[in-house]
Amino acid sequence: MIKTVTIKNYILIDDITLELNKGFNVITGETGAGKSIIISAIDAALGAKVNKEVIKTGTDRAFIELVIEVDENFDNSMFEANGIDLNGKEIIISKEITPSYNRSRINGVMVVQEFIKEIREKLLDIHTQHQSYNYVQQKNHLTLLDNFALKPHRDNVLTFKEKYNKLISLRKKLDDMNNRINSAKEKEDFLKFQIKEIEDCSIEDVNECEKLEKELDILSNIEKLKELSYSSYWSLNGEDGSILNALSSVKTNISKLTSMDENTAEIEESFINAYETLKDIASQMRDYSESKENDNERMEYINERLSLLDKIKRKYGNTLEEVLKTYENLSNELNSFETVQEDIETTEKEIKLLEGELKNLSNIISNVRKELSVVLSEAVEKKLSALELPKSKFKISVEPAEMTETGEDRAEFLISANISEDVKPLSKIASGGEISRVMLSLKSIFAQADKTNTVIFDEIDTGVSGKASQAVADCICELSKSHQIILITHQPIIAAKADSHFYVKKEQSDVTKVKVFDLKDENRVKAIALLSAGEINDESEAFAKNLLGV
Description:
Layout: E1 2-10, E2 13-19, E3 24-29, H1 35-45, E4 62-69, H2 77-81, E5 90-97, E6 102-106, E7 109-111, H3 113-123, E8 124-127, H4 141-148, H5 151-199, H6 208-220, H7 222-237, H8 243-260, H9 265-291, H10 296-316, H11 320-386, E9 393-404, E10 407-416, E11 424-425, H12 432-445, E12 454-458, H13 467-479, E13 484-488, H14 492-495, E14 500-508, E15 512-519, H15 521-533, H16 538-548
Parallel strand pairs: 3-13, 3-14, 8-12, 12-13
Antiparallel strand pairs: 1-2, 1-4, 4-5, 5-6, 6-7, 9-10, 10-11, 14-15
Helix pairs in contact: 5-11, 6-10, 7-9, 8-9, 10-11, 11-12, 12-13, 15-16
């Protein structure tokens, strides 16, 4: 509900603040006093288009602020998503209008007009002779119809929405996988070529290149190696003059020495060990020299192998270890393409199953909607008749439509105010008096189904008098038990039913000013008397007191 409305420098208004109440709030005043300016300001704060012409002459900016209280069930997810704190379920909406810009804020956070317009549908309906929001907009009709239904139907609608969104997600997943498969088909042959190229190298040792390079170095220097090794052997153990021959006489001398002095035994043992070691080395040098042969075939193989491995490294990694890692990645990628096809088949089965479930659920939902549309259409017609529109025809059309998250139906409210005319969309109603009563009828019937807590009617009594006025008054009173009503009226019968009464007065001296008074007791009697007779006298005051029951 709207708790307070503050308006500054807006059209004819200098500075007013209305403290509104729950239930039925009525606004009266002479024609042209500025009552509709208040509604216009509320509308502007909630996203209606305005221009700089609304700024009061002589001032540089207009300002409007609404303090709105929401109940504990209010969906505040939109606010949380935009970083707006509700401050204990209280929304402060403000709008500043200057010649160069318009700025809107919610609880101090600047927001765009689209956001304001989106939340207004959650907060209130405004019905004037020229515009009417939620109930006229066809996009809301299906939701209103569903919300009026019993819980099992509402649960089905919610389940349908969840399943439909899952279906959309699965379809997107399927599209992505099919696109991937199509890309894979183009890439698969190349992947297989790359994998085979690496496999053909038969890499078993990541250090193979280093080992082959060492072996090649040996084969390339085989003659030099034979020369060095055999020369070493000859020097150690060749003919006369070799090292071992020379050491043989040393060995004989040390042996004699030890036989004469046992203290030199260790020396003899060490020498003999060294001598035998040199003999072994000489033998090894000879064997090494004899084992080395030129192997051109092996050298050619190694060169070819190193060339192949270098080529692979240039393409797939700087080292054989990196090449094998690339091979693993390529294999995984190829395998993933193969598993995608399996995933596609699984997803297609899920989609088919879900489509069947949605179709069945859609039929159930559609049947309930069609049954409910008949019941509600009759209820609205009865309400219209009670509001002195007895010839009106009302129909809620439920027609097949393309599947969306709401089902496979399109709902629209259709009406004819004249018995000779066919029903037409609600937005085509031309008469201001008729549309006001139609909106009041709909609001009364759908009060339990819609989510808005505040309803504003601007001159709902246009074209209404006598018995119809009483019917309108009774209907508004009934509606005010569940909704906050803000109503501009010229009908004393309607005004007298209000819980709170505000009187708008225009004063003109050097400048024109609009003032608002919260009427109580005797002042309210006088306002009702003025509405009923155009002047205050004993007869009109008596009539007003009778209406007010005082």
